[in-house]
Specification:
The chain is mainly β. It has one domain: Neuraminidase (6 Propeller). The strands form 9 sheets. Strands 26, 27, 28, 29 and 30 form a 5-stranded antiparallel sheet that branches. It has a 4-stranded antiparallel sheet with strand order 1-33-32-31, with no helix packed on it. It is globular and about 55 Å long. The longest helix is centred in the N-terminal third of the chain and has 18 residues. The chain has 1 helix and 33 strands.
């Protein structure tokens, strides 16, 4: 009995010791640099980043609250803050996204409003403030911005006025596209009855915008939660075809346009998911909204579409990818992007994806908790696929974890890639800071061996 008991105690001790070992360390992202672009902590979230296709040394990044811009003219080695970005006509501006058009002009898109409703619900006792979606332009690549913002959609103050939310701006920069230079914005419109997916286009480099059209085939629930129509993202193929995705209940939907965004196909489910609005430890709010991107190298229509999202089908939250080689008609089985052990209890969330048009490599950024047994502290991981989304290698972009301590860190992150150089942007909670203070950080990595 004493011998058996000693062996049992030894076995339990080894199991306990092994369970507290740190997770296997990831290789560092090659030639990685990480910069904090916010001068001091504040309420900063929901960033976006873009590379100028005409001058890749120029990179522009946006974050809120209110709308702000950081720009680099030396491939992300140094960053400066632009001025005069936020709306002067509204009290609050946010939900930012950025892009460049085919002339090298930079654009920031954001919502602006005076008053917000209650938690997860835009309305409160039928009262809602004026609000809208606006665009501001920089004609020099991101350093200087036009004084006036341009309305893509506006709602006046009224009883039960609709609420415009979560817009994302996309450019057609394909040289062979009949719609090259067009800009597109999709977003969720909340009404007291439902949620709707809306869309506008600009054919004059953002100076004017079309009348909004609804591109869903049926209403979602009228609350910022599961069952709503949310998480618009889009990509444009070499032939100018628009591929747009969002979340609708427990599945992702796709719609396409072949006429520059004037009309869209009937939406259809392309991927079943677990709910993509979910709670993770120590974060006020989280979701797995999808992104879509295309490898443009495969002829007039491009060679492969990629979709990423995150959900908790495995218990803990994982990041997934699916691809299509036939313009979105059929899709591969969901592939797990994070490569930690299955069912290890670690959450990976707030992913964002980009495909490098020069070589078709796919990059996915996400918050990663594989190194914390308590599933609270996060680092930033960059996953890369060079085989058309069939497999991903994970790299550590940061190795110092942070605890969000139940603050709001946004609804999304951002990543962009060109010629083997990758930029990511995300929100962190700094150490020894109380209240809701956060910072925004930008990481770069370089996978092009010719530059090193």
């Amino acid at each position: 009995m004493p011998l058996i008991r000693s062996r049992l105690v030894l076995t339990l001790s080894l199991l306990c010791f092994c369970s507290n070992l740190p997770a296997q360390s990831l290789p560092k992202a090659p030639n990685a640099e990480v910069t904090t672009v916010t001068p001091k902590p504040g309420f900063f979230t929901e960033p976006s980043i873009a590379i100028n296709p005409n001058h890749p040394q120029q990179v522009v990044a946006a974050y809120q609250d209110n709308a702000k811009i950081a720009f680099s003219t030396d491939a992300g080695h140094h960053w400066q803050l632009a001025t005069g970005i936020e709306s002067t006509n509204y009290r609050v501006s946010g939900d930012v996204s950025v892009t460049y058009d085919n002339q090298g002009h930079a654009f920031i898109c954001y919502i602006a409003f005076d008053k917000l409703g209650s938690f997860n619900y835009w309305g409160h006792n039928g009262e809602a403030s004026r609000n809208g979606i606006f665009v501001r332009r920089s004609l020099d690549g991101g350093a200087n911005w036009e004084v006036n913002d341009i309305a893509a959609s506006q709602q006046p103050t009224a009883i039960n006025t609709p609420w415009e939310d979560k817009p994302y701006i996309v450019a057609d920069n394909n040289p062979q596209s009949p719609f090259a230079g067009n800009l597109y914005i999709g977003w969720t419109r909340w009404t007291v009855k439902d949620s709707e997916l809306m869309f506008v286009r600009s054919a004059d480099h953002g100076k004017t915008w079309s009348k909004p059209i609804e591109i869903d085939n049926g209403p979602g629930l009228p609350r910022d939660d599961n069952g709503a129509l949310e998480g618009f993202d889009a990509t444009v193929g070499p032939d100018g075809a628009i591929y747009a995705v969002w979340g609708d209940g427990n599945h992702l939907v796709l719609t396409t346009s072949a006429d520059g965004g004037k009309t869209f196909s009937h939406t259809r489910n392309i991927m079943d998911t677990a709910p993509i609005m979910f709670q993770v430890e120590a974060v006020a709010r989280s979701n797995g909204f999808p992104q879509i991107a295309i490898d443009p190298r495969g002829g007039p229509k491009g060679s492969r579409l990629f979709v990423t999202w995150s959900d908790y089908r495995n218990g803990d939250v994982d990041v997934f990818c699916s691809t299509s080689a036939d313009q979105g008609k059929t899709w591969s089985k969901a592939l797990r992007v994070n490569d930690d052990p299955l069912h290890d209890g670690a959450d990976q969330f707030f992913q964002w994806m980009a495909v490098d048009p020069s070589d078709g490599a796919a990059y996915v950024l996400f918050y990663d908790r594989r190194g914390d047994q308590k599933n609270r502290q996060s680092t930033i991981t960059l996953a890369r696929s060079t085989d058309g989304g069939r497999s991903f290698q994970n790299f550590a972009w940061t190795d110092t974890p942070f605890d969000a301590r139940d603050v709001f860190i946004g609804d999304y992150t951002g990543v962009a890639a060109l010629n083997g150089r990758v930029y990511g942007i995300w929100t962190e909670k700094p150490e020894n800071k109380s209240s809701r203070d956060t910072i925004v950080r930008i990481g770069s990595a370089d996978f092009n061996p010719e530059r090193h």
